[in-house]
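Known limitations

Structure tokens in this collection are predictions and should be treated as such. Users comparing against experimental data should check residue numbering before alignment. To illustrate the layout, the record for Propanol-preferring alcohol dehydrogenase is reproduced below. The input appears on top and the generated tokens appear beneath it.
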Amino acid sequence: MKAWQFTTTHEPLVLTEVPEPSAAAGEVVLDMKAAGLCHSDVGLLEDEGWLALLAKQPITIGHENAGVVAEVGEGVTDFKVGDRVGVCPTAEGVGAPGYAFDGGFAPKMAVPAAALVPLPDEVDFRNGAAATDAGMTSYHAMVTRGGAKEGDKVGVIGLGGLGQLGARAAVLLGAEVYVAEVNEKVWPLATEIGATDVKAAITDFEDVEFDVIVDYAGFGTTTDQAISAVRPGGTVVQVGMGKLEATINTRNLITKAVNLLGSVGGTKEDVAGVYALMATGKMNPTITTISFDEIPEGLEKLHRGEIVGRLVASYE
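Generated tokens:
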């Protein structure tokens, strides 16, 4: 079969003939239906620092995957041939597709069954793939780390790819959501996803006492603004890495007893949580679809900032 493989940095992906995988003990083989393209894929192609994360070179990349179980290895009892599944890229003890083992930029992929998440029939494979990374990460920050729930006043800083999903998840869970976004061109989107109000900064909501604020931007000043805006005893979750350093007012942090938490990635349970929201038909992230053959071109467009929403290669 043909697979798009990474050879080394500063070189394009190579379409290579590789053997079809078989399911070892504890594994399944997936007939791939959709694979997401991510900025970390672009980073791998451009930055030598990513090489240390790879189990081998060349390697088939692609860590946002959804497909149908085609073969089941010895000892696998939770899944059977024909099951629709997504692959959690941060499942405990497994390693990420495209890094620890060959990923989804190929028609078939062997993957440990421990990374699989059942994909509801109501969720198409493109959404199933997209939810395994951006969806999981945004949900984990908002719900698992932040604890956002029905009735909470929730602040969302940054309405980019992660912020949109996190804000929508909070709305669907019954929270009252306020969005801080410096780019006024995307303010209408805040209304579309159900936010109560949108302003340039989270501190502009002077009359709102936030229970939870999730900073999906992380632009140095936004963390401190979140600490200032959250209620005493409230929670601030930092997931955005727009800048890798921030200056905060420790007086506010201490005297308000603010819970300041970091968040990264997520779990199979987070992926399942996103799938459950998608299955309602009320969470529909914007997806740009390309074909398998267009994957290298898609990565170039992603690098140039030309993609709207999440970029997914559909194999159907």
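For this record: The helical segments are 39-46, 125-145, 161-172, 187-192, 222-229, 250-255, 268-279, 295-303. Residues 147-262 form a domain with the Rossmann fold fold (CATH 3.40.50.720). Please report discrepancies through the issue tracker.
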